[in-house]
Hints:
Elements: H1 18-26, H2 30-35, H3 44-52, H4 56-67, H5 72-79, H6 83-95, E1 99-104, E2 107-112, H7 114-119
Antiparallel strand pairs: 1-2
Amino acid sequence: MEEIYTYRPAAGIKNIPPEMDAVLKSKGGLRTITDRLPELSSYDDEAEKFKALSAPVRLQIMHALLVADLCPLLLKDITKMSDSKLSYHLDILESAGFIVHTQRQKWRIYAITLEGRKAIGHLRQTSEIPMI
């Protein structure tokens, strides 16, 4: 008859694999791990940045700005969006710090920031666009 082996974790948590029990012991236990984590509310800014990247059209805008600084009129043509929808998406990207605008006479010109390049993985890509 086959003997059934029951693992009894030293960490006192039932039904975890032995490998996880070893990790918990090496890190000082689950309480030590959880005590090292920031409060849940401290993730709000980071979550907003991920939300800003969650819409395909916002990624399209950022990739267009990798190629050249652009005004809303050109971005409107690229995205096929109305003025109000484009403005909404530009505001989200700008609030997240992924793009910036400069005012040139009556025109706004948008550019991708260093943080924006990092966010979409184009930091190492060579470009004629100056990093802001």
